[in-house]
Amino acid sequence: MARPREACGVFGVFAPGSDVAQMAFLALHALQHRGQESAGIAASDLDTASVQRGMGRVAQVFDEESLRSLRGALAIGHTRYSTAGGSDLHNAQPFLIETACGPLAVAHNGNLTNAPALRRGVLERGLDLLASSDSALIAQLLAASTTNGGSAAPWETHIAALMGQMEGAYSLVVLTRDALFGVRDPLGLRPLCLGELPGATGQNHSAIASESCALASIGARFLREVRPGEIVRIDGAGLRSIQGQPSPRRALCVFEYVYFARPDSILEGQTVHGVRQLLGAALWREAPVSADVVVGVPDTALPAAIGFSCASGIPFSAGLTANCYVGRTFIQPDDRSRRAGVSSKYQRAPRDLRGQRVVLIDDSIVRGNTAGPLVRLLRDAGAAEVHLRVSAPPVRFPCFMGVDMAVPDELIAHQSTVAEIQERVDADSLAYLSQDGMMAAVRGETRGEARHCSACFDGRYPLAVADRLEARAGAPVLEAGAEGRYRGSLSP
Description:
This protein is of the alpha+beta class and 492 residues long. The chain is 28% helix and 24% strand. The chain is built from 17 helices and 24 strands.
């Protein structure tokens, strides 16, 4: 149950006459669950741009003085967990560059699957890379596109051309001197949405965010999701939409529903909380068990636990509590930090579990570092039995689209059977939700429709990922073509 790490959260706002830095600060707080290593805000006053970045959480990076230095008409913000590039200040975002077209700031959520090839091209042109992350690479490629006579073209032309070169997952917010852009990759692998809010000048202003919960935090009204392949431009003339690249099909990461997104966010027209309750109900139908109480792992598994409880009639109880000041145990920079985070984050609730048969509901087991300690917590509270139920299938394959699950040997289900995992975590029984059950709960879809990326469960990638594997010893083999298929060794 060491948790999957998501790349980042991004935000942008165009609101002349308002405190855009304060808005970005509040929105990044709402997106803090998507990354806790670093944070940054860039702002433009329609002439010049400035940026503040730092290591740590949003409240550690910014104070009133630093926010006052970011006055302007538009701003973008970023909160990061590193999945490509190290955890250091050089890779903190947004990246701000002076170009032939004026200031350019970029914040990115996702990973590029062809980043090594793009990086080689930059180096062959004699350019120095700003940092080691894919996000820095995107900023540098976009800045370089304005040279050699390209400065006369509008920014959306440069962005669309760059989209034609990039492969993989990217939801971007881009700040220029006088415009804000939202950009989503053609498969829509990572989420991005639009909102509007009343402006101080009497006209509506606009915002862009990874999740709708960030819009709500600043009083903005959710409008819609940015469509896959779409470029949204927001400036003094209003909001305009450009299709930067065609969208052959959609492949939103299904783990957004399982774990990443906040329960109060809206994805594809439905609340994440509602879908997680459906996942829990499906889990009961597939893996019923005789028990006295249902306990959910705070906080992401609580909706699934409620769904399991409602479907089964077994009472729900807060058998575990989480320290809200300790970060997500999966969003930690190394395995040692994750293990240390488990004991500091989770504690037994006051409820007496002596002699009780407990169903422990979690949303995923990735590395398997925390399941055992949580089972022990419940046993120490007097539980007679602990039955572990997981509201997603086993995570058996690496991810290359912005989630830190890229090393197969770190995935417990890649190398162990369900029975072996059950023994390792010392549960009385263990069952996962099937993939068909998961996809049916996510808008009633089935695997065959392939509307979501579920590669971490089934090894079917929505695009080729061989470039990401080229330097790894003993890398798995992927079929050629537009869709990769994992063919590495796998335990039964």
